[in-house]
Amino acid sequence: MASTTKNLSALGKHFSNEDKARELLESLRWPNGPVCPHCGGDSPYKLTPKATSKSPGRKGLYKCKACRKQFTVTVGTIFEHSHVPISKWLLAIHLLSASKKGMSAHQLHRMLGVTYRAAWFIGHRLRHAMSQEPMNLTGIVEADETYIGGKARNMHVAKKRRVMMKRGRSIAGKVAVMALLERHDKPSSQVRLHVLHSLRRHEVQGIVRDNVKHGATLHTDAFSSYTGLIADFTHNVIDHAECYVDGEVHTNNCENFWALLKRAIKGTYVSVEPFHLFRYLDEQTFRFNNRGGDDAFRFALALKGILGKRLTYTALTGSELPETC
Ligand SMILES: [Zn+2]
After folding, report:
1. CATH superfamily of 140-287
2. How confident is the model at residue 150 (pLDDT cuts 50, 70, 90)?
3. Higher pLDDT, residue 161 or 248
4. Residue 223 burial class via C-beta count within 10 angstroms: exposed 0-12, middle 13-18, buried 19 and up
5. C-alpha 37 – ligand 1 centre gap (Å)
6. How far is CA 206 from CA 133, 216, 238, in A?
7. Rounded to the nearest whole angstrom, what is the distance from the C-alpha of residue 146 to the centroid of ligand 1?
8. Between the CA atoms of 200, 203, 205 and 211, what dihedral angle is there, to the nearest 10 degrees?
9. For the chain, what are the domain ranges?
10. Of 17, 85, 196, 245, which cross-links 176 as Cys (Cβ 3.0–4.6 Å)?
11. Which of 3-7, 96-100, 164-168, 282-286 is predicted least confidently?
């Protein structure tokens, strides 16, 4: 599998031909032959496409012997009901998995030759495929928070006044994001991100307790919302007013991650709606946590994520799916 998905050049032949793209997806999804997504039956048979004067017929269609239902390789995946060819989906997965600072909907739109709205929807469905299951972090865990969003000086004066009343000048209009990073030399450190609705102690500490194993070693800065965690963790504090590193006690791995995330958001996405921010965080987390592997590894991993993760346009936007998506 790795040889066919190693790089853009190797994948190229699957992008120009829809039959080859479908075959590749089938071989990746069903390495031991087709399996019915409705009942799990493993002995379906292939149906011959019925061509009419208007259409060449539906290719890649199977029928399950057990439940008698028909299906294709895209059923139960983020590709289901999409008008975008599989070949373009595969190219989009490769581009998003391999680009360290992400790829904007405008660039996907130009490179894939689909409408901007279809490209935007593809990007969000792929970010959804890249989202990871929550897990308990252990060992040495760094916790840190940052603020993402537009500068107050660029806001309309009425909005600026409104957000400053709520949040103060420096973080007005920004979204607070918290990182929990399990420190490793090899394999690479793993990060989990959470959008914070408030900076209050009960929310910050609730996230730490839900995601870090009781008794783990926690490194944080001197932010007051972390006070009290010492009851459940070995809590080391590094006060950034004094220094940034004290032996092993620091949050520098989180700082490195923030630098990369902010370059992606400012440089590639430019403006991110707070409502959709968690999806961009999922995408950046996926690439960061799997940075030890090559592009082929991340491509295969993102493809695995397409299963059982449908995301409808209505769920994303609250409006109907346009014809072109
Ligand atoms: Zn079946």
Report:
1. Ribonuclease H-like superfamily/Ribonuclease H (3.30.420.10)
2. low
3. 248
4. middle
5. 7
6. 18, 15, 21
7. 48
8. -150
9. 8-30+73-130+309-316, 140-287
10. 196
11. 164-168
Residue 229 is predicted with a pLDDT of 92
Q: What is the mean pLDDT of the chain?
A: 84
Give me ligand 1 centre to Cα 30, in Å.
15
| The one-letter amino acid at 197 | H
Give the type of residue at 231. A
Please give the distance, rounded to the nearest whole angstrom, from the Cα atom of residue 34 to the centre of ligand 1. Answer: 11
Phi, psi (5° rounding) for residue 23? Answer: -60, -40
Backbone angles phi, psi at 257, to 5 degrees: -65, -45
Residue 81 CA to residue 239 CA, distance in Å, equals 52
For residue 189, CA distances in Å to 34, 44, 67, 142 come to 36, 42, 45, 10
3-state DSSP of 201-258: HHHHHHHHHHHECCCCEEEECCCHHHCCHHHCCEEEECCCCCCCCECCECCHHHHHHH
Task: Enter the tokens of residue 134.
Answer: 């929550």
175 in helix, strand or coil? strand
Distance between Cα 157 and ligand 1 center (Å): 59
Contact (Cβ atoms closer than 8 angstroms) between residue 277 and residue 283: no
> How far apart are the C-alpha atoms of 284 and 267, rounded to whole Å?
13
Ligand 1 centroid to 68 CA: how many Å? 6
Cβ contacts of 145 within 8 Å, gap of 6 or more: 176, 177, 178, 179, 196, 199, 204, 223
